Amino acid sequence: MASTDFTAEIQQLRDTYSQIEQVSDVPALREDIARLSEAAAAPDLWDDPDAAQAVTSQLSHKQSELERLTRLGGRIEDLETMVELAAEEDAPEMLAEAETELASISKALTDLEVVTLLSGEYDPREAVVTIRAGAGGVDAADFAEMLMRMYLRWAEKNGYPTKVLDTSYAEEAGLKSATFEVKAPYSFGRLSVEAGTHRLVRISPFDNQGRRQTSFAAVEVIPLIEQTDSIEIPENEIKVDVFRSSGPGGQSVNTTDSAVRMTHIPTGIVVSMQNEKSQIQNRAAALRVLQSRLLLQRREEENAKKKELAGDVKASWGDQMRSYVLNPYQMVKDLRTNHEQGNPAAVFDGNIEDFIDAGIRWRAGTRHEQND
């Protein structure tokens, strides 16, 4: 077995780290942290809880980004020192430790490099995710619920707060649709590569003859609007219906008409919210999501890039972007990136980071080709 050329490997680490530093714009990052720190220290910060949450969230994200960069730079320096000491003292066990650290730093740089590819206009935003059952009957509704759990578990493992805004339960099992927020910086940039049609192949637990069933679910991801986006919707363009919140099997879970269905008359966009405690809160949440969808639509029209961000998702044969196969073999495969994993149970438990990273790289490559 050939020995590791630490000099060449460490130089490669330095080159990659330098490129990431340039893309990350460390001086601008430090300026942002100083500005946000000053805003976070303002005595009247929490007079506006939503604005305060945005400031503290952005500050935390940028501090973590700078700390991660600084720590990685220090680890490269420490690795070089370790290799020099190992050579001076003829210590093979120290070289073995250096090999392990080299691999670990390489992986950390690769992960950080993916983050630098999130350069889209809306990538820094929080995300609103909607999952809808497609073709496949009760299996599709069950699949939609499996996907919702998968994304919520992914967010939980990454420490990203989530908020379920609406759940529409199917009659027998699963979900007709569900909408939730992922309240962390760059969650839209990451999750936007998950938008599209997802396909499940398995022995149906709802078929008494044990036949294999193919079902589909659609995932839509839109960026959450900010106050500076200035999306004004005239009252006469909105139709609001109220109804009672419902649970699994269509049962009513509220004794008052607190759920809200909001329709934007000019576009036909419909948003339903029922998970807040009051009609006023559900109305506010519905308006926020409606504004996000209209913002996305407006930008798409301006740039003539129809459905580039949210996607025109049919949830049926012919346009699936990922397949989850549980029978006759075990495999999850992304049809755009060709990334695959042989443990669907782990994927459904939220271990989708590799799929997301592969999707981000694929998207960056596609944009680069389009610009050439």
Can you characterise this structure?
Peptide chain release factor 2 directs the termination of translation in response to the peptide chain termination codons UGA and UAA. Its main location: cytoplasm. This protein is an alpha+beta fold and 372 residues long. It folds into three domains: 4-115, Methane Monooxygenase Hydroxylase, Chain G, domain 1 (Up-down Bundle); 125-225 and 311-369, 2-Layer Sandwich (Alpha-Beta Plaits); 233-304, 2-Layer Sandwich (Double Stranded RNA Binding Domain). The chain is 47% helix and 19% strand. It is built from nine helices and eleven strands. The strands form two sheets. An eight-stranded mixed sheet has the order 2-3-1-5-4-9-10-11. A three-stranded antiparallel sheet has the order 6-7-8, with helices on one face. Strand 10 and strand 11 form a beta hairpin. The mean pLDDT is 86.
Summing up helix and strand content along with how strands pair, one would put the structural category as alpha+beta
Reported CATH architecture of the largest domain: 2-Layer Sandwich
Number of separate strands? 11
CATH topology description of the largest domain = Alpha-Beta Plaits
What is the C-level CATH assignment of the largest domain?
Alpha Beta
Largest sheet: 8 strands, mixed
How helical, in percent, are the residues? 40-55%
Percent in strands: 15-25%
Mean pLDDT: 86
The tally of structural domains comes to 3
The secondary-structure element order is HHHHEHEEHEEEEEHEEEHH
CA radius of gyration: 24 Å
CA-CA gap between termini: 42 Å
pLDDT below 50 for ≥5 consecutive residues: which ranges?
A: none
Summed up, the helix count is 9
Strand order of the largest sheet: 2-3-1-5-4-9-10-11
Oligomer: single chain
Q: How does the overall form come out from the CA principal axes?
A: globular
